From TrEMBL:
The name this protein goes by in its record: SOS regulatory protein LexA
Sequence ranges assigned to domain HTH iclR-type in this UniProt record: 22-60
Single GO term (MF): DNA binding
Pfam families to which the protein is assigned, alphabetical: HTH_IclR
One example of a Gene Ontology biological process annotation: regulation of DNA-templated transcription
Gene3D superfamilies: Winged helix-like DNA-binding domain superfamily/Winged helix DNA-binding domain
Length: 65
């Protein structure tokens, strides 16, 4: 498995935090993917790894930072 980019993880986390502040809800995986320029499946894999590293809380549906 390829290692995930720490820079992209930081970009995803910042997007999630900013989106939540503006919308009072977490963004969808599709919105995250579009915002950072990656495929939805790739965004999902990043979210899972970020959760494993305790950068976010993610249960496959809801994201919390």
């Amino acid at each position: 498995m390829r290692s995930k980019s720490p820079e992209l993880m930081s970009e995803i986390k910042k997007y999630i935090e900013d989106y939540y502040l503006q919308n009072r809800q977490s963004p969808s995986t599709t919105k995250i993917a579009e915002a950072v320029g990656i495929a939805r499946g790739t965004a999902y894999k990043y979210l899972v790894e970020m959760a494993e590293k305790n950068m976010i809380e993610y249960d496959g549906q809801e994201i919390r930072t």
